Model the fold of this input.
Amino acid sequence: MRAKNNRLCIYPKDIQRITGKSYRQSIRLLQKIRKELNKLQNEFVSVEEFCQYTSLKIEQVEPLIIG
Done:
């Protein structure tokens, strides 16, 4: 039996799958979220923070990032 994969952070490839935007646009969106949240360039953005910023429901986002 396989354990459930719960990830805390979101990556540009995940944003690309969710939004349908290009990889580069996904990187820009992630940078914009970091700037808005006053995070450093090397700090991660959580799935929850992404959902709050984009007004998406976490229940809709999780299946897309887990694969």
Notes: The chain has one domain: 12-64. Helices lie at 12-19, 23-36, 47-54, 58-66. Residues 12-64 form one domain.
